[in-house]
Amino acid sequence: MFSTTILLGAALLFGVQPLIAKFLLPWFGGTPGVWTTCLLFFQGALLGGYAYAHRTIAAHAPREQRRRHAALLVISLAVMGVWIALWRSPILPPATWKPTSLEYPVATLLAVLAAAIGLPYLLLAATGPLLQAWYTQSRPGLPPWRLYALSNLGSLVGLIAYPVVVEPLLGLPAQAILWSTAYIVYAFGCWRCAQQPIAAPIAIESPGAVAARPSCGRMVLWLALAACPSLLLCATTNELCQEVAPVPLLWILPLALYLVSFIVCFSGERWYSRYVWMPMLALTSVAAYAVLQRGIDTTFAAQLLAYPAVLFAAAMACHGELFRLRPAPSRLTAFYLTVATGGAIGSAFVAIVAPRLFSGFFELQIGMWLAGALMAGIVVGERRSWIRGGPPVPPIATFARLVALAVPVVAVIVFGRLLLDNIRSANSGAFLVSRNFYGVISVQRYDEDDPSAARDVLTHGRIEHGHQLRSPELRDIPASYYSESSGLGLAILNHPRRAAARDRSLRIGVVGLGVGTSAAYGLKGDVVRFYEINPAVIDLSLGAHDVFTYVKDCPAHVDIVHGDARLSLERELREGHPQNFDVLAVDAFSSDSIPVHLLTKEAIEIYLRHLRPPSGILAVHISNRYLELEPVVRAAARALGLDEAVVESRPGGDKDPDASASTWVLLAPDAAALRIPAIQEARTPPSADVPVARLWTDAYSNLLSVVAWKRKME
């Protein structure tokens, strides 16, 4: 019963993570920061669960421990019952809980998570150490470490089952009901474990256990060895998601590798070898550094191999050393509490400290260096090592020891210098850099010596998101992906209302502000309405750092709605204010990452309700290094009966010298809206090479089906 309950509890603990994160992702802009903040909550709640277990075991007799835990389980079930009555779901908040302001997204997201799954998650987190302690109370003398490995196995099963079985077969409401039903079964299992007889304790310690009272230095080392893989877990997920999309697949892969390292290392001493995993850490760190150095020239496949590989090697090395330094079973819960504290420190560093401390995503470099430094410190500092100890040896052996001492230290110093140079080069040349919950933006100035080419360029992550020429005579020319030859430019310049005899004014909507280039198409009498979630981007056009002047120079009436575009558009419909856009552009990329919730069938239906009939046009920007998004948009067009036109523009040329390569898909409910000669001449004929994609919905999206594995930036 102990094994079954621990296995089920661990599966529920990690199975709910992608479920609740996917549900809340659209509420907070679909950015990579959502999952990082969720990891912070999960690690913090895990720490809370371990602290509760440690306190319960230390302060109460065995029978009192079981009574108190049973009472809390009943309370958690009662809370879920209340949520069913109020929310019509045991763990998923209703739409009325959607945030109306994202001024403090981290705090708001943490509060919603606490309300939705806080108490059940806390009790699930306590399962491992608490039930293992009950196991030793019922079966004294039997080591509990295999139960810890079993707990991590259950976590892995719950995590992998989500994208493989649960997500493809069930919608989010059904997933919540399934999880809650399994939680009831888990609570019954805990009750059965609590009924097990309590045996008289006997003093038996496991072989190889360290002293019963670990020193402060030993506990600090536990903290560091637990914090480093947690930091790398969050950093790896950030790196992958900011370049592609924050979706469960890219959340689960790093987390699964992290869990596998726990399972392997805590299954027994024979599974971890320094002679394998420390060299492996060195090799994978060099490979990850090479990928970081290549920057935007790196393929997605290379990133998907290099970053998780260094995470796994570091996690194996750190968790292997943790197991070697484990205490006696009598110090079990204190050890778990320290490990959980280290995990929480690692995730808090990435989610809270790093965005305020750094101007870029540098946590991966820091984590790699920290892992190497820890391993070098352990090898050099361990007194039992052949490097430090042993009987007197000949001079040649003494020299070998000195060399062996120097090699890891020098390697860590040299690698640290290389990583520092990589960090310094990340924003070199930028005169303005900002990092927040939504990512890293920077502004660079190019060709200052040439008045006709001098321009300010906005970069999000490592991708250009538009630029503006600095010359007063040229600065209002639409440039980059939004030039007159682009799909958006053609849709606005050739819209039927522009040729009308009377009212030629247009209502233009844009999802994603960028540098505000779309405002260059606004004429007197027009309305241009932007939807932008990142306050730092708005600040570049209207705030203290008003680098870009498209918005200020626009003669049309310009509005900027702060918040997630989809939530804002939904709210406008609920309030009875459809915007009647003649052209609505969707261009809300973060680096090359796409907010998936803005490309689903339900999202496009919302956009269509904001178009002015019969000639409204929806323009979707799909330029991307790593994803083939054309099949996704075309699948939605077929499902909704829309006419479509794919417009690809090439950079340069005499007609449009400041254009960048771009791909736009124009969609219209009325086919006549796209039969304009200029659009028909520019449209790209459908290619047989473009794969057919399954329709993306709020309940289903398949990232793997549209990945361009070998594509690099053109």
Tell me the layout of helices and strands.
Layout: H1 2-24, H2 32-59, H3 62-87, H4 105-125, H5 127-138, H6 145-169, H7 172-194, H8 216-243, H9 248-265, H10 274-294, H11 300-324, H12 332-357, H13 363-381, H14 395-426, E1 430-436, E2 439-446, E3 455-460, E4 463-469, H15 487-493, E5 507-511, E6 527-532, H16 535-542, H17 550-553, E7 557-562, H18 565-574, E8 583-586, H19 601-609, E9 617-621, H20 630-640, E10 643-649, E11 662-668, H21 677-682
Parallel strand pairs: 5-6, 5-8, 6-7, 8-9
Antiparallel strand pairs: 1-2, 2-3, 3-4, 9-11, 10-11
How would you describe what is shown here?
Helix 1 (2-24) packs across helix 6 (145-169) and helix 13 (363-381) runs antiparallel to helix 14. The strands form 2 sheets. A 7-stranded mixed β-sheet has the order 7-6-5-8-9-11-10, with helices on both faces. The chain has a 4-stranded antiparallel β-sheet with strand order 1-2-3-4, with no helix packed on it. It contains 21 helices and 11 strands. The chain folds into 3 domains: 1-198, Growth Hormone, Chain: A (Up-down Bundle), CATH 1.20.1250; 215-424, Growth Hormone, Chain: A (Up-down Bundle), CATH 1.20.1250; 478-706, Vaccinia Virus protein VP39 (Rossmann fold), CATH 3.40.50.150. The chain is of the alpha/beta class and 714 residues long. It has helices spanning 2-24, 32-59, 62-87, 105-125, 127-138, 145-169, 172-194, 216-243, 248-265, 274-294, 300-324, 332-357, 363-381, 395-426, 487-493, 535-542, 550-553, 565-574, 601-609, 630-640, 677-682; strands at residues 430-436, 439-446, 455-460, 463-469, 507-511, 527-532, 557-562, 583-586, 617-621, 643-649, 662-668.
